[in-house]
Amino acid sequence: MTFSAKLQHRAILLSKRAGGPALINTLLQVMRISLLCYIILFSTAGLLLAAPVKAQNAGTERVSFGISGQGLESALQLLQKQTPYVYYYRKADVKNIEVAAMPEKDRSVAETLSLLLQNTFLTFRQVGETIFIERAAGQVPYEISGRVVDPHHEPIPFATVTISRTTDNKAAQVSQTDTGGRFKLEVTDPGSYLLRITAVGMDSLSVAVELAGNRIVSLPDLVLAETTKSLKEVSVTAKKPAIEEKIDRTIVNVNSMISSTGSNALDVLSQSPGVLVDGNGNISFKGKPGVLVLIDGKPTYLSGDALTAYLKSLPASSLDQIELMDNPPAKYDAEGNAGVINIKTKKSRSAGLNGQVSASYGQATYGQTSENLALNYHEGKVNLFANAGYGANENYRILDLGRDYFDAAGNLLSLFRQTQVIRSQTNNSNIKLGMDYAASARTTWGFVLTNVHSSTTQSNPSTDNLFNGSGALDSTIIAENSGKSYFTNTGLNVNYSHRFDSTGKALTFDLDYIRYHANSDQSFLNTTYLPGGVQTSNQLLTDNLPVGIHIYSAKTDFTQPLANKGKIEAGLKSSYVSTGNAANYFDVAGGVSTPDENFSNNFLYKENINAAYLNYDQPFRHFELEAGLRAENTNAFGHQLGNTTHADSSFERHYTNLFPTAFFAYHLDSAGVQQLVLSYGRRINRPYYQALNPFILLSDKFTYSEGNPYLQPQFADNYKLAYNFKSLLSFAVFYNHISNLQNEVIRTEGNIFIDGTGNIGTADFEGISATLSWSPTRWWDLNIYGQIGHNSFKGQLFDTYLNQSSTSEQFNMTSQFGLGNGWSAELSGYYVTRFANGQSVINPFGQLNGGLQKKILHDKGTLRLSGRDLLHTYVADGITNFIPNTTATFRNRFNSQVFTLGFSYSFGAAHNTDKKRETGAASEAGRIEN
């Protein structure tokens, strides 16, 4: 790992080493070697084809050959073993074609091939020692396409579709529906056929199809009814892969993870490739903060500790998929330079009442509990659902700060050493209520009501020691700081969806309202002592910090299918945000509170964003193209109310930006096993609403936080080239450039540190990553993500020029074991090497997690014992650079080692995946800081 940094004092970092150019040179060298190999390969092939050979004749060459009930692909492989020829064919052409039984008999190779290929659209030809199996010239097969749906017209993925000739009941082709329930079959000859559709948990369906003059046959929606039979023994031997790579996202299939039942959404998220969840619950994606987290495309309304508590309250058994998008398509808001994480939950469409109840107790330094209840009731056209969760936890953190101050000549002036013990007790509750009403087979109305409440009591006493330039103690300050805070988020969504026909043509509409209210009361009592223990001063300061935010949003989306599985998507969105932030500070002396106008303030902010997008997606024979353009118009108004020490001021901004996205996927083989994907996208990060608040928030006597009403949005351009081999292996090369970078900035006024956010210049991220999703055995699933990246930060920072960079590595691993008899186990962890982040350099950190679970009560109940940070290695240490005449260090220790015992129980009908709705206030709600 390498670093380059301009240090203010002492040689703390390693000397500069060219990490980026070395990476580029290595890649170029590999490309040169690969190019040379390809030249040699094709030259050799050309010489071999051009060389005169004495070829065998398939018309005279004899073979004793016979089959019984094999498919065409297997028959060709068997024939190849018995003849001197090499056979070339597209797997897609021969896959799932059954051939009639052939008694073993001595025939010519040509006669044998003619019998195998009869009643298919294939023929053969011989070139030297090679036999090509290909479509017959001018042969246009019949194409039968359709969609398989349930009684509520929701698509059924992975249903088996078989088409057979009615004359001999032989299957002409077998296929599976895609995730949208669609299928397409090809048959050569006209005549009468029978289409049979089967799916797990559904009754089978048979449909007669007559193929005559029309070569394109589009069937209406094929509806499968839910089975009413009770199966005593069902053995499922195939499952969806845990990780899937798509053209624009990585998908984590939660049900395919052995130990997903009994865990929670945060656990699953922390095991997803490229995702890191630190000890504070902060989520980063592929080394970058600023990721937008959605639940079913809807806002979480939360960030920080509150988001962590909410995700912990969602049981993993209620999740369907996690979509990881470092470059989301144009239909998603452009907010979030690190991309979007969309957590999709399940709904049940089974008739009657079903649900799940779960509870857990965890022991760290202090205890913590979590309880959750999920209910679903479906009857006729109405589907009702409800989720409620409660959690209580007590945390602590030990924070050590060190600050050294120098004069212009570099002479030490003074030292500051602080130790804080931060202890907090938090209670979280959340509730979600909703209903879907199927007004018709194609039209659905729905609403969702959410409420999240959190209250925290915190004490953070500290001991501050001040030393002079000679290292002698000047004074000691004992601070007794404490506070109480709470926040409440309430959201209401009304949605409408209409499907015009069975092709996928659809219109959706969403209205959202979100109300966020928070309040905080703090007390800062500082007592100063001389080295001999003599008290010299006593100061008490209190504050009251109310916050109110209202978000209104409306959006509509339209989907128009095109021929050959293509589609066009378009949409409009408009949002309006109104915020009010007040800071009321008081000096307390003799029991009397006097307003402190130097710190007190009141800030009002309003923002309107209007957006429109157009997205085009079209697969071709060997490649797929997806391109989109999103336009967002922003109108912002800020008003700082004046008082006796601050003048009244205001500002307004208006800007319009375009956000293009493009994805190009090329299949390197006909079966789509190997794929190259090239993508580009432009993103924006607007400031958090509270970060625009210009007044000061106190952490203690020597550390302040200050907002910046002049913050401008930052923009990111993201480029990536990826190679995917099935869902097994993926390699990627990426480059991200951020302009007008918003980053934490720290400055000093005397011996006071002031922390804020500023636009400090540019940031660049480049690197390579690899993902492996492998099952070495039937009982072992292994998922590994690795990344090597180089980042650099450059720009003006107050009176100093910021120029800092690093090369670092990131590693995620999840290993899951099926132990039999309902037992399973898991071992996971991550490690990140030292890296730069703006002014700061963060030391290495990581953790190892483990779990053991047992399914009980006929697999409806689950007991789970898990341990997080088993080796107690998670830390958050580092240094802060580029502060004139100052060096600073920080050291954090958490109660991150937690052992948890949990129980969950599912009752009623089994869950099935239902529709996922995307509402309109995601990016706005994601900019609320808690």
Describe how the helices and strands are arranged.
Blueprint: E1 3-5, H1 19-50, E2 62-67, H2 72-82, E3 86-88, H3 91-94, E4 102-108, H4 109-117, E5 122-127, E6 130-135, E7 142-149, E8 160-165, E9 171-176, E10 182-187, E11 191-198, E12 205-211, E13 216-218, E14 222-223, E15 243-245, E16 250-253, H5 265-270, E17 275-277, E18 283-285, E19 292-295, E20 298-299, H6 304-312, E21 319-325, E22 340-345, E23 352-363, E24 367-379, E25 382-406, E26 412-438, E27 443-459, E28 462-468, E29 473-499, E30 506-529, E31 535-544, E32 547-561, E33 567-589, E34 592-595, E35 601-619, E36 623-641, E37 649-667, E38 674-685, E39 696-700, E40 703-706, E41 714-725, E42 729-739, E43 742-749, E44 752-759, E45 762-777, E46 780-797, E47 800-820, E48 823-832, E49 835-837, E50 840-842, E51 845-856, E52 861-868, E53 875-883, E54 886-894, E55 898-907, H7 922-925
Parallel strand pairs: 3-6, 7-13, 7-14, 19-22, 40-44
Antiparallel strand pairs: 1-47, 2-4, 5-6, 7-10, 8-9, 8-11, 11-12, 15-16, 16-21, 17-18, 19-20, 21-22, 23-24, 23-55, 24-25, 25-26, 25-54, 26-27, 26-28, 27-29, 28-29, 29-30, 30-31, 30-32, 31-33, 32-33, 33-34, 33-35, 35-36, 36-37, 37-38, 38-41, 39-40, 41-42, 42-45, 43-44, 45-46, 46-47, 47-48, 48-51, ...
Write structural notes for this entry.
It is a single chain. This protein is mostly beta strands. 8% of the residues lie in helices and 59% in strands. The strands form 8 sheets. It has a 30-stranded antiparallel sheet that branches. A hairpin with a 5-residue loop joins strand 17 and strand 18. The radius of gyration is 32 Å and the shape is elongated.
